[in-house]
Amino acid sequence: MKGLIKLNRKAFLSLGISIFLFVFISVPLVAGTSVPLRETIQEFTEFKGTIIDSKTKEPLAFATLNVLETNISTITNSDGEFLLKVPNSYVSNSIHISFLGYQTKTIPLSSLNGEDIHILLEEAAMQLSEIKINAPKDAKSLVKAALDKKGAYNFTEETIMTAFYRETIKKRRRDASLSEAIVEIYRQPSNSSKADKIKLIKARKSTDYSRLDTLAMKLQGGPFSAIYADIIKYPQFIFNDNTFSEYEFSFDKPTEINNRSVYVVKFKPRPNITEPMHYGKLYIDAETFSLISAIYNLNVENRERAAELFVKKKPNRVTVHPTEAAYRVDYRLKDNTWHYGYSNIQLTFKVNWKGRLFNSVYTLSSEMAVTDWAKALDDDPTRRETLRPTVILSDEASGFSDPLFWGEYNIIEPEKSIESAIEKINKHLEKRGGLE
Q: Are residues 249 and 205 in the same domain?
């Protein structure tokens, strides 16, 4: 018997939900395996470290690191850790480190030559009166100005972005599935009628279906879900012509990003709105009115309506509703042009079976970071080479058996919980009689 949970396409287009969910019942599958990555003598050098708060000594997740005079970049994981692979021709360069609300820091790569490197960032904050520019008359006008600057966020010609994508599934607090991929995003300029394309370069997975019991969940959409979180390129998924007037906007305490003064705007649905809509904060450059970052959620208090946004078909004995839908998107400035740099989506669902005493809670997370880009030189992938927006990455991926799988590609460092989960999955597979 198979049950299917899938996002309603109409709701997806109108409310900006960018994750599809599949639920398969009692599908026995064999998991892949993992072998720790090993360093080899190649034409690049690996740099590792941790970004932390200078006062609290807490790790800073989602900090951005860019190698100066290159397009090479990466993001720290939830433990504040990073792994940066740099061609040997650039190892004499410096890296630029930035984090939302903190002062930026530039240090030479040569200083990252130890085993336990910690880089301290100092918090930056300012009063609104310190921003010496002509402020918009209200927060709503500022957001409108930011959304109208769509052309400033895209290159004037097609660009190939190399990106690392990861998705995980947890049952309560226990990791159950991990899929990762290197992709190329064929990003179209804002004045083009062509759709963005994504080409799969490498992919792998590791899944312990014994932790999923009789329920196996899969994310549909994969890397497309990540780029659809870009509310500048795809405003129809959150701030479209029909929904913009349904929000309230207000100023929050300003901050600083990359040594630039930044307005912080809070937004939420008007009080009379009962449909699930988004709420959160927008970070807008005070000088150019460009959107730098957005952190927002979908209001899922109305369980029935929120469930309808996600559930299209399911077994009769199962009820499913989301308890959290959180989103984040960050932009980067390069050569006076802003572009999509990183996005993160986290969805939590509660699953109830009739006749069972306890429910199940699943958390599905996906993130994607652009690690490099270059101008497209008549290199348009064929339809067979590109992924569909409905792709299930775990169906495209292989196991974890190749220790040199990623080569020189930059990835987001695995979290300790993910590394532990893969190790346990491997031990479980070894006991069952072999690795793939």
A: yes
- For residue 100, the enclosing domain spans 44-121
CB 184 within 8 Å of CB 164: no
Asked whether residue 272 is domain-assigned, the answer is yes
Considering the domain boundaries, does residue 2 fall inside one?
Answer: no
Q: Per-residue pLDDT tens for 14-64?
A: 333 333 344 432 222 222 223 333 334 458 999 999 999 999 999 999 999
Instruction: Report which residue type is found at 386.
Output: T
What does the angle CA 45 – CA 51 – CA 52 come to, to the nearest 5 degrees? 160
For residue 356, what are the contacts with CB-CB under 8 A and spacing of at least 6? none
pTM beyond 0.90: no
Of 121, 151, 180, the residue that ends a domain is 121
For residue 155, which of 233, 259, 228, 226 has the smallest C-alpha distance? 233
For residues 143 and 111, membership in a common domain is answered with no
**203 and 402 Cβ atoms separated by less than 8 Å:** no
| Alpha helices by DSSP H, 92-188 | 139-147
CA distance 281 to 342: 16
Pairing assessment for the beta strands 118-121 and 44-53 based on DSSP bridges: parallel
Read off the pLDDT of residues 317-366 as tens digits, 9 standing for 90 and up: 888 888 999 999 999 887 777 889 999 999 888 888 887 777 888 888 88
Classify 16 in phi/psi space as left (phi over 0), alpha (psi -120 to 50) or beta.
left
- Compute the distance between CA of residue 167 and CA of residue 221 in angstroms, rounded to an integer: 11
CB 328 within 8 A of CB 298: no
Order the strands of the 247-257 sheet from edge to edge.
Answer: 197-207, 174-187, 159-171, 360-375, 337-353, 318-334, 291-298, 278-285, 260-269, 247-257
Strand 260-269 relative to strand 64-67, pairing: unpaired
Please, which residues have CB within 8 angstroms of residue 405's CB and are 6 or more apart in sequence? Answer: 37, 202, 204
Amino acid 84 reads L
